[in-house]
């Protein structure tokens, strides 16, 4: 099997929903499940980010017509509907169904047309980028997909296409707080519960440390290590960094 990436970049103003990602760099969406036929695509996406970014996403999502004249990547009209399956402070789980009309359709439809039902696709959105990854055993079918979409891409969008070197990495691992050393996990939880990450911030790290009865330098170290681990694992895959509790605590002291 071989993985290929299609990346569509958007100019600001080219797409109402992508504008929210452009305006809120902390906003991120990934596909949890996606199934496309020649007529319809069903998908579930998890959208994460700061509360204010998610609030902007919610407002924009509600402003999009349920049965709309939104233009797909290739300029065709589409009918679209959605439902919020789960809503949390820093995440949303969104179900959507869309059917694209006449004209050049978007990546999952074109892939399905070339490879048949059951093509494996996943997507992620952040900043001005909308990335589709496709897992196939016949790479010859994907070049025509790229050529057709590039020839019909609507204004304000730009397309790149590349083969992923090495073995496909389609792991669905997410950062798991249980993988953190207990001291880092407790420090992060204390910072969250006492409002260090709230906007506006309710307590400083020094105030959190005083409330927890530990030196501020120790708390700062543990929180920084936990933040670095979460950031690297969330956006860069499972990146192994030193997280042995004994090693971490020895370094901190």
From TrEMBL:
Top-level taxon in the UniProt lineage: Archaea
Pfam families according to UniProt: HTH_10, HVO_2928_N
Keywords attached to this entry: Transcription, Transcription regulation
Domain HVO-2928 N-terminal: 4-170
Domain HTH bat-type: 182-230
Name the record gives this protein: Bacterio-opsin activator HTH domain-containing protein
